[in-house]
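This week, look over our next protein:
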Amino acid sequence: MPDTNHVHNLGYQKPIRRELRNHLTLAEVVLWRALKSSQLAGRKFRRQHGIGSYIVDFYCPQEKLVVELDGAGHFTVSGEARDAERSAYLAELGLRVLRFENEQVLRQLDGVLAGIEAEFRDDQRLSTTPGPSSSEEGN
């Protein structure tokens, strides 16, 4: 397992991260507006966050969750191979990766946000002991 203490926002990436933040895609802008300032279930997200040699679109440290937006370049054989390699590396660090197509964000933002938030709820259910009333919530 890679050393997780020294993989975040490596110094050499700072100008690259800044450049990416200053030139977000439309889908990234739309999603960032919904995620910034802890608007989604009180979770803090970072945009264009460095993890190892990769720069991920969005990262929630509290949830160890990476959210990636995929445009046309991701739907080629080489793009899919790079994404698989990146996802495998992030998984080795104990991070979960959610992927959405840019068009999903632009056309179904509420559904994308619900998908991200569902990851929070799923994680909380696994890490907490159900109380007496929790079994009634599903009815």
User: Anything to note?
Assistant: The chain has one domain: 4-124.
